[in-house]
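thought: user wants a sequence for this fold. calling inverse folding tool.
action: design(structure=
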C-alpha cells in the first residue's frame, strides 16, 4: 500500500505506510506549478488523477511503479493533462465501468470527461442526455479554450529541480 498526498507547491508525494517518502512527482506542464486540490485513482490503481487550483486535471500511469517500486526502470509517467474548469477543482473521481472522469469545481459546475483522451462529454444539468459512447467529437466547454495534451515523451518525467536566476542590472536598458 502507498499513500499519495497533493501539495500546495504542485507536487505529489508517494509515501510508504511506514512514512518513508518513496517518490516525488511534479506535473509536466508549460504552466508554473500551482497548488493541487484533489486526488483520486481508478479502481485498479493503475491511474492517478490530480486536480489543481487553476482547473487543470493531470493523469499519471502508476501501474508499473506499484508492481515493483524498487526497480528504477518502472517510472511513473504523466500521460494526459487538460484544462477542465476555469476555477479550482474541488473533487474528481474515475468511473471505471463507463471510463469517465467526473470533475467538480468551485464555480459550481460538474463535468464529464473521457478518461483515455480527456475529451469533454458534457455536464450535469445539461438539457440533452450525455452520450458517453461518442468519444471522437472534440468539443470544449464554453469557458475553456485549450484542448487536452497527450504527453508521449518517455523522457519527460519531471523531478523537482532547483534553478537559480541571478538578477543582473543592464544599464543600457
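)
observation: tool returned 173 residues.
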Amino acid at each position: 500500500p502507498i499513500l499519495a498526498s497533493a501539495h500546495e507547491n504542485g507536487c505529489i508525494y508517494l509515501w510508504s505506510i511506514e512514512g518513508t517518502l518513496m517518490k516525488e512527482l511534479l506535473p509536466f506542464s508549460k504552466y508554473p506549478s500551482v497548488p493541487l486540490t484533489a486526488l483520486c485513482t481508478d479502481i485498479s490503481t493503475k491511474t492517478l488523477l490530480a486536480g489543481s487550483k487553476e482547473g487543470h486535471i493531470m493523469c499519471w500511469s502508476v501501474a508499473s511503479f506499484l508492481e515493483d517500486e524498487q526497480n528504477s526502470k518502472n517510472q511513473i509517467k504523466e500521460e494526459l493533462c487538460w484544462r477542465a474548469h476555469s476555477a479550482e477543482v474541488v473533487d474528481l473521481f474515475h468511473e471505471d465501468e463507463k471510463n469517465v472522469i467526473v470533475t467538480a469545481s468551485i464555480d459550481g459546475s460538474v463535468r464529464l470527461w473521457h478518461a483515455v483522451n480527456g475529451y469533454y462529454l458534457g455536464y450535469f444539468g445539461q438539457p440533452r442526455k450525455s452520450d458517453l459512447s461518442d468519444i471522437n467529437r472534440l468539443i470544449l466547454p464554453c469557458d475553456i479554450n485549450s484542448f487536452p495534451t497527450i504527453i508521449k515523451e518517455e523522457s519527460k518525467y519531471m523531478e523537482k529541480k532547483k534553478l537559480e536566476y541571478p538578477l543582473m542590472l543592464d544599464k543600457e536598458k
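thought: summarizing for user.
answer: Here is the designed sequence. Residues 155-161 have pLDDT under 50 and may be disordered.
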